[in-house]
Amino acid sequence: MIKTIYIEKSIKNHPRTKKILKKFPNSTQILCDQYKEIFNRKKQNFRIQKSSPSLIIAKKFNNFVLPTPKGLGIGSNKNYYFSHMLNCLYDCRYCFLQGMYESSNFVLFVNFESFVKSIEKVIKNNLSGEKITFFSGYDCDSLAMESITDFVKFFLPFFQEKPNIEIELRTKSVSIKRILNFEPFDTCIIAFSFTPDEIARKNEHGVPSVKSRIEAMKKLSNAGWKLGLRLDPIIYHLNYKYNYKKLIDDIFLKVPEKSFHSISLGAIRFPRKMYNKISNLYPDEKLLSKHFVKENKIISYPKHIESEIVSYCKEYLKKYIDENKIFSFDPYL
Ligand code: SF4
Question: If you measure from the C-alpha of residue 170 to the centroid of ligand 1, how many angstroms do you get, rounded to a whole number?
């Protein structure tokens, strides 16, 4: 899969770097001073690169842990995210990463210990003892590249020792073998994102099927793990009522309500600049051209559609789950 690996000189002898390089003995390996030379280079084409992305092994120096955008949360007073990777193995047509980065190459920051130090600092500075959730999987998929990154293997034991701190691993992957090797703990939420099968087949390229993701959730539930369901982004389409109803029914038919820590949902929306970049990559993509309106600097569905789809899904979810476990990001509700 990965043919070329760029390695920052400063971490070429890092044990994690060496371990990764051993997994790709036939790759072309190129040393560089800074990952940004490769990743932020202008006039790269995200879409073309996506067919054969390179891996960039790098060291992160700052901004290890950041507050989540306003309104994103699953019940805690304080919410932070951290990204050991930039970019994702999968290729969802609606993915905001396409509009955020110049490149679709994968950046992996190997200095995991520095992330841990920053997370510890946030916890220590929480003098008021407010509930904290850390999110992983904001700039990548938390599990999809586990066989290369060993992210779960490193971070789960760390969070296992922090009984009052929540960690969400967000994913569309079914690579759950590593997780199943650990004892489950209630403050770790494995959160799966879904769109209905009809939308997923057309728009989620390389992503495990909806059915296999539900199966993965079932296995984790049987093993005692807490789960999240993320209907984010909700996509408006002709059969949206039938399709979202079926998706929700299929999930709750297999996975018991008690396994769910939280459900979150929100309609698709993009900052204007990001939207322009994505729609330039895919000018014929109907998903990106239909129904949208511009309001201030945001491109989204018109208010009435956004409210309609979010409230429809929310109401239907209440058939299965207590309302206080549902978090919706509709700014108009
Ligand atoms: S799984 Fe998530 S991060 Fe990966 S391409 Fe799809 S939307 Fe983007």
Answer: 10
